[in-house]
Write a structure and sequence with these properties.
- By secondary structure, this protein is mainly α.
- The chain has one domain.
- Helices cover about 65% and strands about 10% of the residues.
- A two-stranded antiparallel ribbon has the order 1-4. It has a two-stranded antiparallel ribbon with strand order 2-3.
- Helix 1 packs across helix 6 and helix 5 packs antiparallel against helix 6.
- The radius of gyration is 15 Å and the shape is globular.
Length: about 110
């Protein structure tokens, strides 16, 4: 999965805040994969503005390629489904939520080989 700066921030808000020990270990590992580093903050000129964050055009274009494990996909899928059922999808997280939903079949096909 390819993620730009916005996607990485949006995923932080989508991931569950509580769950079983196993779930939280999976979430913790996934957060480490998508974490915005100090180097990213400098490279993309990330700044707090008002109640949000801004970054330069490179941060909008450049992506981080990550592999999503089966357990990570299950947690992401469940989180998006929960947001959808409770009508908590926003314009800001809509694209990443759609992308996660689209990943379902692709990952299942890959896993079944």
């Amino acid at each position: 999965m390819k993620l730009n700066v916005k996607d990485r921030y949006m995923l932080e808000g989508i991931l569950p805040k509580e769950g079983s020990i196993i779930d939280m270990l999976v979430v913790k590992d996934f957060k480490e994969k998508i974490e915005i580093t100090k180097e990213d903050a400098v490279t993309f000129d990330i700044k707090v503005e008002g109640q949000g964050l801004i970054w330069n055009k490179e941060g909008q274009k450049k992506t981080l390629e990550i592999d999503i494990s089966g357990p990570e996909l299950i947690i992401l899928k469940d989180a998006v489904d929960k947001l959808d059922k409770t009508r908590k999808i926003t314009i800001d997280n809509l694209e990443i939520c759609k992308e996660i939903k689209d990943l379902r079949d692709d990952v299942k096909k890959t896993d079944s080989k």
